[in-house]
Design goal:
CATH topology of the largest domain: Ribosomal Protein S8, Chain: A, domain 1
Helix content: 25-40%
CATH superfamily of the largest domain: MutL, C-terminal domain, regulatory subdomain
CATH class of the largest domain: Alpha Beta
Number of domains: 3
Number of strands: 25
Radius of gyration: 30 Å
Number of helices: 21
Largest sheet: 9 strands, mixed
Shape: globular
Distance between the termini: 82 Å
CATH architecture of the largest domain: 2-Layer Sandwich
Strand content: 15-25%
Length: 617
């Protein structure tokens, strides 16, 4: 077949294959156009999951009548001048509207603030109709009907109406977080409406918008992030370690206001939470990166969801460092979900309700109950809670362990009472009892705290081991014979550049010819390890992120295992002073709200919640 020029319609349909993946992609492009036009109100209506109808209406600047034909022409845009490295808008490629028009029936009706009337233009399967007068208020309405009617093969790849509607809702929420001053509404054929009222651009306004999207419980279980490094500014909120989700769908990231799904940012979030979350749980995050547009490439893919940073190591280091510092400075906090699970477990009939599970799709209260550390209690509504009167906590013999000798003088008892009153004002309060030989019951001025002594001490030992591990060089063991690892030359060069950092972690690496490295020492903590695999993993990570976190994470996992075996075991009776000492150490240790495996170390129940259980409120 001879070489020939493709038709404009065919070119647009090829472009549509990259830009328009599903109805949610159309909504994303049209909403971004509305925001670039200065809209303060964006209304989206869909039918058939967006395959039958998508209508986006805004109150932005509008499109002049004489520019409507250009708006649907390929590579025509008002958002980009002559510098591709200075992109300050969401859209800039000039591909979305002609791509949509090549596979659907598209109409655009628009009116500017100074225009006497509105004008409308249509495009159906690539065929453009003439511009004609229309009636409309200021702004633009874009209507897309019968998506992919011109390319019916694409329809076979669409999911059900509910799945497509859910994807559209996710896109709108993701964009809305970055624009709190804009009001968004989304209405579908299932009569469900998403309404996100406008707030403002202040920190409080942004947090209110985040709460609209992610739920009212997120602000109470989050920590603010604000850090800068070498011209890169990071703000936002991350959840406390005990507030997690089963997937990463509630991790939102923005680069200069643009919603992105970037592997580097996702990896940095995982790294920051690596030793405070279970392996199958994910943090909830909303992060905003602001940097010079010239230092980030957003022109990587037509969908504009991927970005490339000029200095990925800087960005990753900033995210990991800022989150870890915020977690350390936040002090000890318990997730409010733990108290909710406890309240549900204590209510009459909780057992049958918990096993049935809530109808709204959230994790069952039964799961929350066991995660909160109360699996040892009998929740049956037919019998009272077994608090251990047979020798498991409150028995006479066990209470003898708390005896501290003869009664002190009146002055000494007064001093003790004063000290106890002081402890009530601390985060975890004063220890009052130990039940089931594992749970410390403490009291603050306004709450009841129950601590899992093994999980709590496990975290304390782990943090002490980590501090010792990273405050000095890691002990290494010399190999009898150096291990030669063959690598691509560029990987060998990267490892050689990081040899000093690797040596600090106990790994001695040096160049061995153009395409290999020689390993002479390995960290003693690793014991017998697969040196070849370790070195190749490190080379891959350095290539991706310019870091050597893989080795550090392996050492941290070993420290976590050592901490698990070296901590206070369940079943050990503690004296009052030991329990209070443990509570004070928890308050002073970053991340002590969860154990090394991500389970909560304590649950806090406010006095007001307890009074509600007894009908006092």
């Amino acid at each position: 077949m001879p070489i020939r020029q493709l038709s404009e319609t065919m070119i647009n349909q090829i472009a549509a294959g990259e830009v328009i993946e599903r109805p949610a992609s159309v909504v994303k492009e049209l909403v971004e156009n509305a925001l670039d036009a200065g809209a303060s109100r964006v209304e989206i209506v869909t039918a058939g999951g967006g395959l039958n109808l998508i209508r986006v209406t805004d109150d932005g600047f509008g499109i002049p009548q004489q520019e409507l034909a250009l708006a649907i022409a390929r590579h025509c845009t008002s958002k980009l001048a002559d510098n591709i490295h200075d992109i300050r808008s969401l859209g800039f490629r000039g591909e979305a509207l002609p791509s949509i028009g090549s596979v659907a029936r598209l109409s655009i009706r628009s009116r500017t603030a100074t225009g006497d009337a509105a004008a409308e233009i249509g495009i159906e399967g690539g065929r453009v109709s003439a511009v004609k007068p229309a009636a409309a208020n200021r702004g633009t309405t874009v209507e897309v009907r019968d998506l992919f009617f011109a390319t019916p093969a694409r329809l076979k790849f669409m999911k059900g109406e509910r799945a497509e509607s859910s994807a559209t809702s996710d896109v709108v929420k993701r964009i809305a977080i970055a624009f709190p001053a804009v009001r968004f509404t989304l209405a579908g054929s299932d009569r469900a409406t998403l309404e996100l009222p406008a707030t403002d651009d202040s920190a409080e306004g942004r947090l209110r918008r985040v709460a609209q999207v992610m739920g009212a419980e997120f602000p109470d279980n989050s920590i603010a992030i604000d850090a800068s490094r070498d011209g890169v500014h990071l703000t936002g909120h991350v959840s406390i370690p005990s507030f997690t989700r089963a997937n990463a769908l509630q991790q939102y990231a923005y680069v200069n206001g643009r919603p992105v799904r970037d592997k580097l940012i996702a990896g940095a979030i995982r790294g920051a939470f690596a030793d405070v979350l279970p392996r199958d749980r994910h943090a909830v995050t909303v992060l905003f990166l602001t940097l010079d547009p010239a230092t980030v490439d957003v022109n990587v893919h037509p969908a504009k969801a991927d970005v490339r940073f000029r200095d990925p190591g800087l960005v990753r280091g900033l995210i990991v460092g800022a989150i870890r510092e915020a977690l350390a400075n936040a002090g000890i906090r318990a997730a409010t979900s733990g108290a909710v699970g406890m309240m549900a477990a204590f209510r009459p009939g909780a057992a049958s309700y918990a096993h049935a599970g809530p109808a709204n799709g959230h994790r069952s209260y039964d799961a929350a109950y066991h995660a909160s550390g109360f699996a040892g209690f009998d929740r049956s509504p037919q019998r009272p809670l077994d608090m251990g009167f047979d020798g498991a906590g409150f028995g006479e013999n066990d209470q003898a362990a708390f005896d501290s000798g003869p009664l002190a003088s009146a002055d000494a008892r007064a001093g003790t009472a004063e000290a106890a009153e002081t402890l009530l004002g601390t985060a975890l309060g004063a220890a009052r009892a130990q039940v089931h030989e594992n749970y410390i019951v403490a009291q603050t001025r306004d709450s009841l705290v129950i601590v899992d002594q093994h999980a709590a001490h496990e975290r304390l030992v782990y943090e002490a081991l980590k501090n010792a591990l990273h405050s000095r060089a890691v002990p290494s063991q010399m190999l009898l014979l150096p291990e030669i690892v063959d690598l691509p030359e560029e990987d060998a060069e990267r490892l050689a550049m990081h040899s000093e950092t690797l040596a600090r972690f106990g790994l001695g690496v040096e160049r061995f010819g153009p395409g290999a490295v020689a390993v002479r020492e390995t960290p003693s903590m690793l014991g017998e390890t697969n040196v070849q695999q370790l070195v190749r993993d490190l080379a891959d990570e350095i290539a991706d992120n310019d870091t050597v976190e893989t080795l550090k994470e392996r050492l941290d996992k070993i420290a976590a295992t050592m901490a698990c075996h070296g901590s206070v075991r369940s079943g050990r009776l503690l004296k009052p002073e030991e329990m209070n000492a443990l509570l004070r150490q928890m308050e002073a240790t970053p991340g002590s709200g969860t154990c090394n495996h991500g389970r909560p170390t304590y649950i806090e129940l406010k006095l007001a919640d307890i009074e509600r259980l007894f009908g006092r409120r």
